[in-house]
Amino acid sequence: MREFWPPMLAYCLIVLFAFPWAGEPALPLAARLALALLPVVPMILVLRACARMILRSDELEQRLALQALAAATVLVGSVSFAIGFVDSARILEVPGSSLLLVLPATIGTWGLSRWWLGRRLRT
């Protein structure tokens, strides 16, 4: 967890204090682009920490993590895909910023799936 929390804290601080400046029209385009992409760097480090934690775990934990990730990917991917078609058909207008929710939704669904699989294993 020592590998997880520092980049997660950095991500939170960047999203709260640096990212809002990305929409400032007075800044040069390069600066706005850098500010817009800045939260990606610590999030990659967070995901790396999660992957390393899974790789250090035993076979059962790895299997449960993989099954949970598969379930999360199928669920969130299917919902995102369906929303894309609804938006393309102009039935419901979905803002592009909703793409920011795909990774957090996948991670959250992964966590819930992992909890459910672990609970199911114990019964």
TrEMBL record:
<feature type="transmembrane region" description="Helical">
    <location>
        <begin position="63"/>
        <end position="86"/>
    </location>
</feature>
<feature type="transmembrane region" description="Helical">
    <location>
        <begin position="7"/>
        <end position="23"/>
    </location>
</feature>
<feature type="transmembrane region" description="Helical">
    <location>
        <begin position="29"/>
        <end position="51"/>
    </location>
</feature>
<keyword id="KW-0812">Transmembrane</keyword>
<keyword id="KW-0472">Membrane</keyword>
<protein>
    <submittedName>
        <fullName>Uncharacterized protein</fullName>
    </submittedName>
</protein>
<feature type="transmembrane region" description="Helical">
    <location>
        <begin position="98"/>
        <end position="117"/>
    </location>
</feature>
<keyword id="KW-1133">Transmembrane helix</keyword>
